What we know:
alpha+beta, seven-stranded mixed beta sheet, five-stranded antiparallel beta sheet, 26% helix, 33% strand, globular
Amino acid sequence: MAVMPMNWKIHHVKSVDSTQHLLREKAVSGADEGTVVYADKQTGGRGRQGRQWDSPTGNLYCSLLLKPECSLQEAGLYAFIVAVALANTIEDIIDTDGIQPKLKWPNDVLIEKRKCAGILLETETNSKNIVTHLFIGFGVNILPQEEGDRIGLSDYAEGVLRETVLNNFLKNLEYFINIYRKNGFLEIASAWRSYAFGLGERGRARTVSGEYHGVFKDLDDDGALLLLLDNGDIKRITAGDVYFEK
């Protein structure tokens, strides 16, 4: 793939059911690659597998459009590119000694084991099953979070602005997209491992085929989680939810 600068076109709305839905509407109308929409509030935000995403005013809710012309498997790698770009962005903002954002496979960004951001990828394909449109949605908690399993950037830094987070993220995303297009996935995978949550720890993976227990051994070259089972076998997890022992 050619390395080229992204021409981001940013659109802001006060309220929308879902930035993913709005972006799809813009794509139908011929929106260019690099179209970005972000909202003050979502009334119907969602995460993976249709789960509801709570979207109070003050956090960052955003979706962006890429047109990669690639296979579905390759499109899935963009989740890791986005995750690394988000981790870099968040790390620069919190700038706290000894505290680093962590990436929980497959799509969460954590700070001190609490969720700070989530990623959602959706695709459209042509008759040859080539991905023509990749809709990348993500939410970043900016507001302080008093309790629960979530954390906000304002818990670590004062005066965090959504626009600053978004602009810095887009710069980082362009950088890592170009690394991927120039050098392939191995460099992205290496960067992801440097932020990996639970690497080398025991956990369980819940998939459509069952639940598996073992040690999170590594990330495969295609983004699959490699779980070392108790019997010594390696189980490749390509989709599912992962939980680690406390």
